[in-house]
Amino acid sequence: MAERNGDGKGGRVQINLELYGKRLKLLNNKWKEHKKEMWGGADAIAVVTPPASEDLRYLKSTALHIWLLGYEFPETVMVFMPGALHFVCSSKKAAHLEELQKSSKMLTGVDIHIHMKERKQDGSVQMNSVLDAVKGFSKGKTPTVGVLSREATEGSVMEKWAECLEASGAATVDVSGGFSEIFAVKDEEEISNIKNASHLSAAILKSFVVPKLEVIIDEEKKVTHFELMEQTENVITNPGKYVKLKAEDVDICYPPVFQSGGVFDLKPSAVSNEEPLYYDTLGVILCAIGARFRSYCSNVARSIMIDADKTQEKAYKILLKAHEAAIAALRPGNAMSVAYKAAYAVVESGGPEFLPYFTKNAGTGIGIEFRESGLTLNAKNERVIRPGMAFNVSLGFHNLTTESSNPKSKTFSLLLADTAIVVEKGPPEVPTLKCSKTYTDIAYSFKDDEEDEEVKVEAKPKVKSESNGSNEPAVRMATLRSDNQEMTKEEQRRQHQAELARQKNEETARRLASGGLGSGDGQGPNKTTGDIIAYRNVDDIPARELKIHVDQKNEAVLLPVYGLLVPFHIATVKSVSSQQDGGHSYIRIIFNVPGAGFGPNDVPTQKFPRSIYVKEVSFRSNDTRHSYQVVQLIKTLRRQVAQRESERAERATLVTQERLQIGKGRPIRLSDLWIRPAFGGRGRKMSGTLEAHTNGFRYSTMRQEEKVDIMYRNIKHAFFQPAEKEMITLVHFHLHNYIMVGTKKTKDVQFYVEVMEVVQTLGGSRRSMMDPDEIEEEQQERDRRNKINKEFEAFVKRMAELWDQPPWRELDLEFDIPFRELGFHGVPNKSSAFIVPTVNCLVELIETPFLVVSLNDIEIVNLERVGLGQKAFDMAIVFKDFKREVLRIDAIPSTSLDGIKEWLNSMNIKYYESRMNLNWRPILKTILEDPDKFIEDGGWEFLNMEASDSESDKSEESDEGYEPSDVEVVSESEDDDSDDESVVESDDDEAEEEEDSEEEEGLTWDQLEEAAKRDDKMKGDEEDSEDERHRNRKKAAGKGRMPDPRDAKRGQPNKRPKVR
Q1: CATH number of the domain at 544-651, please?
Q2: Do 534 and 555 meet the contact criterion of CB atoms below 8 Å apart?
Q3: Per-residue pLDDT, 218
Q4: Fewest CB atoms less than 10 Å from the CB: which of 183, 282, 367, 532?
């Protein structure tokens, strides 16, 4: 086992002092309590590690280093004594241990002594010094030194230590049992590592190995076991496509094992041979994968069966029951023998003929070592199971036989393995169960003719029952190939989508049953305004001449009414307008009154419910210039107050952030960056610097007020997008909670640099492609792009190293890089954009407003307007939070349809297809109002286009709440304000439009009466039937058009009027 980020790799070693202190105390306590029975009465314990090696090997010496220090230190001597710990190592390793030496006494009460060995020295002087300390501690008696006697002597350091130890005359005793006891029960950190390793093993087997085998079998490819092993090993060591784990943290426990063709070995030391994969009738394929995460192991194994006969089916089902019985027996207080005895009893009662072929144990303990000594699950081990133990539960039948005459299928073996973690109460946790082991999921049938039809007939009702909420497992025995046509990728997708539909409906049912309906869009409470007061008493009103005045200081409008100046607070003004007629200017002011949409700001209505309110006032003036100035002043003041109140309300909904802790020394930084959303205010925009400090980022410009802090704990997703076909290189942060950037409230903050400068050619002549100036400019642009990309890459890499250290490791932060090859064009807002998937999100980071959709938040995806002849389709993304608006991405080219379906399928996202756009608001409203009815009706299956076609008559009656709209629905995302939109509307044109619309609302009673009469004439009497109204409209439309005389001459009928 090679060292991990340790000596010789140039990486800085940072030992987790908290874990070191806790685990060293545990070791010393166990040593003190069980000195005689587990440690052989050792006065000191010596552990020596061999030289670094790339070979896969499991040694207790290296396991101790990783368990205690987090790293392996090759060719290092560690000697434990009561109150002291001695290291004999090279100068480079000594430098890594300096920080530990300073803190150990305070953390554990143990002094660390480092005996540094120079490169040219053999270390005998330092070793003898340590042995002298051991003799001094024994006070004249012959000391007993605990050693790992089962580990072979390897390398010059181990050989020299053995010589010095023998020469010292000290007695030796094996202490492997003591270390096994310490490693047996895992703490929270170790369990987390084992779970991550298990998730990796199961994900690779489920998402890579099984689909790979299906393609090989379906297309009848010739692939050897060894080739499969190499391909799988590469995927395990680079797992980014399947699990969110870093490549440097993962490794293999052993080379993946693939066996078939009658030659099987159920030992963990088995290897994949060079023989081709055998997948004909009665064939069995064994797949075993062991992955490590931060040196902690996991294991999972499955048996794939092809056209199994009754003997094979019976053997597998019995083995599955035995395996589940062994796992269920792993409970605190039980002896380890109980697990094997439970499995043996199942085989003995269900298939005694298989007992001679049954494995002799049910697995072993697992952790840093793949097989932990003393924790074997056999019939004789009476060691007690405790919470925190982890086991590789592995059972199998070896070399069973069938009636086949083919030697490759006559002999077969079966193997099942899972990683199980013992918990305080109840059955153990099995993180590898993500990869199913039920018979219907591992058995494939390629039988033709009658047998094939029988399987299909049996499978059909089960699939239907699943759509109705049945808990029966999905049937996977349906044939992959028919008589004349092999299974296509589309059919494979359909199979997977059918399974996803079942899982999604079950998950949705559980969530709705538990009340997990979501919390909406996170909108803050409606803003409220305090008392609207212009002047507290009459004396504060300024004495002015009788004309309209605007008091900006007190935010009031003074209007002359019957010889007095009457003040109105600007918040009561709804709109103001002016018009000129015959040399006079007319000013019209409309006020907010009860029933006119004043809403939560209608404080006077609540205080004085019986008062009479002025709805509008009009003034005529001979001074047109003054009238224009007054109107503009009122509009400006009204807009400023609205901006202030809006910003105050937005800030009131912000979550309080922790304070930024400025780091010591030179921070990680990027210079000359621009920020989006940009800071408000006037004046020339300025670039700034992004710096990484102790607990967050700070972006600042030369202006003191332009500063933004982003806490690491507030980052939900981080993205790095280098410039390829874009004009900018960027880093983007999508946050958990809103922050303010200037006057803008946002969850998305982006920092970018333009990689190409905007250049305008002043010369009117065309430039040749071979023009040396043109070539030089292009080269400069490429150099600039590469330079900027490298600077960003270096920043991202250093941040990844920082986030991998405690306490940020638990946040699981990393920079996602979008996959351009999976991208597609679409309209998520109001303009077309290039939308790109990442490992965890679907993003569009170039155009504003930005699009960031977390895949974990997606319930289902509905692909709308999908059909033959359509050049584009739409995508509706429904979130798990049903109170959140459905996200629409419109006008996606139909050429991207297959790629999007393949990507959604690979990410285990259920998608549906429909020929029309759906009105999602009433659909979600119906689900929220009656979730039980939604589940009873089959959940999301009403979106299944194939099912809806076959039962179209019934769907019109039963799915009233899910009817598609009869007109094309405008994108809901266009109606909603974006997260990062400014809370301060500074555009005069928008304000003018708003005020114009308000003026239309403020009609007089006479105008409203006339409008009502016109509507009555247009609509006709209310007692008229709908058909009569329809005929009247047709007559009106026909009479409203004069016939063309030329049409009469030609004998052509009049064109039918178009109704839109």
Answers
A1: 2.30.29.210
A2: yes
A3: 87
A4: 532
Secondary structure class of 276 (helix, strand, coil): strand
Q: Between the CA of residue 1030 and those of 265, 1012, 1018, 1035, 1054, what are the distances in Å? A: 81, 21, 12, 9, 20
Q: How far apart are CA 119 and CA 135, in angstroms?
A: 27
| Tokens 């501690």, located at residue | 137
> What is each CA distance from 289 to 209, 255, 296, 389, in whole angstroms?
10, 8, 14, 21
In our burial notation (b when 16+ CB lie closer than 10 A, e otherwise), range 40-72 reads: bebbbbbbbbbebeeeeebbbbbbbbbbbbbbb
- pLDDT tens sequence across 907-948: 889 999 998 899 999 999 999 888 888 888 888 888 886 655
Is 138's pLDDT higher than 50? yes
Which residues have C-beta within 8 Å of that of residue 972, sequence separation ≥ 6? 885, 886, 887, 888, 920, 921
Partner residues linked to 400 by β-bridges = 412
Its CATH architecture, for the domain 17-183, is: 3-Layer(aba) Sandwich (3.40)
Please say whether the structural domain 668-758+774-817 has been given the CATH code 2.30.29.150.
yes
Where would I find the beta strands (DSSP E) of 884-980?
A: 887-893, 911-913
> What stretch of H or E contains 815?
strand 815-816
Rounded CA separation 200/297 (Å):
10
- For residue 767, pLDDT over 90 is answered with no
CATH architecture of 825-943: Roll (2.30)
Calculated CA dihedral for residues 229, 232, 234, 240, nearest 10 degrees = -170
- pLDDT tens digits for range 340-387: 999 999 999 999 999 999 999 999 999 999 999 889 999 999 999 999
Non-local CB neighbours of 784 within 8 Å, separated by 6+ positions: 755, 756
